[in-house]
Amino acid sequence: MKKAINKIKNYFSTNFEVLAATIIFIGILVAGIDFYKAIILMLEFIVIMEVVKMISDFIKKETLRLRYVIDIFIIFLIRDVIILTTNKNRDYFDITFLLFVIFVFFMFRILAIKFSPGIIKISKDTVIEYDDDRPNKTIHTTKESNSNE
Question: What is this structure's pTM?
Answer without folding.
Answer: 0.56
